[in-house]
Amino acid sequence: MGVGERMELKGFWKGEIMVWLVVLMVIVVRRGEGQLVQNFYGSSCPDVEQIVRQAVQNKLSQTFITIPATLRLFFHDCFVEGCDASVMISSPSGDAEKDAQDNLSLAGDGFDTVVKAKQAVEAACPGKVSCADILALAARDVVVLAGGPNFNVELGRRDGLISKASRVDGNLPSPNFDLNALTSIFAKNALSQTDMIALSGAHTIGASHCNRFADRLFSSSGADSSLNRAYAEQLKQACPRNVDPNVVVQLDPTTPNTFDNVYYQNLIDGKGLFKSDEILFTSSASKSTVVEFANNGGEFNAAFVAAMRKLGRVGVKTGRAGEIRRDCSAFN
């Protein structure tokens, strides 16, 4: 091989290496743009977690509804536009995400928890922390305060710039969904069937209005056969026909104020309030997971934490996308 050929070959490999370096840099940058990190506010607002936790504790001292309301708010937010606090926006024309039919039952205490936490954070670190991150932290905190597992929350989300009621339709699970429908809607958000079953465990706390499950009690053929008979009678007593629409029933009739795995034990006993709850036990594809979680609280806690971390990554805005709202209920 001549000198010219060697130099040409050397130049070829040098060019190849440069191309691969550029490709790797692009991949790293693209991945970094969508990544969240645990200590995102380490220098800009180092006490953010303690500030949010204190605000959540203050709100909880006023009402226990803080816990289920905040956790449900996080779920409803992430499943529509991604975890970007779009559900927090208030619209004078009543067409924001929170105004959608499926969101009208979201308790005001969840919104108030985030608003109060944001105010406390702004007082310490103005313009630094997104409402989306505050909601994610508050969702973790209410789980812990109810006796559930503690876990690190990835941060770095920015607040979304879109909040429309029309975008909610078809993006949230229904109390009447079967297993295939549940699995499908969670899969749209990169969540597995196991993630879905674990996140359903959030129904170990909270309550529901009677109209969300009345069809299981008063159909033409009688009460849903998958319901425990004694439990069905209790529900009929609490929710008779033409009941006051403000009446609510606990999702977990056994330990309604504790975040634990009793929800799954209730499913085995035929005490799942919604069809979408009980179907997790009556369907062969999900039954074994329900039994596993019912028998092992540690397994449930681990699966719930893993699912919450995955949920918290859904549709996040990072980098230069979105904004850091000054007021969680309004775009800047």
How would you explain this protein's 3D organization?
With 332 residues, this protein is mainly alpha-helical. 48% of the residues lie in helices and 2% in strands. The protein folds into 2 domains: 48-167, Peroxidase, domain 1; 191-311, Orthogonal Bundle (Peroxidase, domain 2). It contains 12 helices and 2 strands. A two-stranded antiparallel ribbon has the order 1-2. It starts with a helix and ends in a 21-residue tail after the last helix.
The CATH homologous superfamily of the largest domain corresponds to: Peroxidase, domain 2
Chain oligomer state:
single chain
Query: Which fold name corresponds to the CATH topology of the largest domain?
Result: Peroxidase, domain 2
Sheet with the most strands? 2 strands, antiparallel
User: What would CATH call the class of the largest domain?
Assistant: Mainly Alpha
| Spatial sequence of strands, sheet with the most strands | 1-2
Order of helices and strands: HHHHHHHEHEHHHH
CATH architecture of the largest domain: Orthogonal Bundle
Categorize the overall geometry.
globular
GO cellular component, one term: extracellular region
Protein name: Peroxidase
InterPro entries: Haem_peroxidase, Haem_peroxidase_sf, Peroxidase_pln, Peroxidases_heam-ligand_BS, Secretory_peroxidase
EC number: 1.11.1.7
Outline of the structure:
This protein is mainly alpha-helical. It has helices at residues 3-33, 48-60, 66-78, 108-124, 131-145, 179-187, 193-200, 229-238, 262-268, 275-282, 284-295, 297-311, and strands at 207-209, 248-250. It contains twelve helices and two strands; from the N terminus they run H-H-H-H-H-H-H-E-H-E-H-H-H-H.
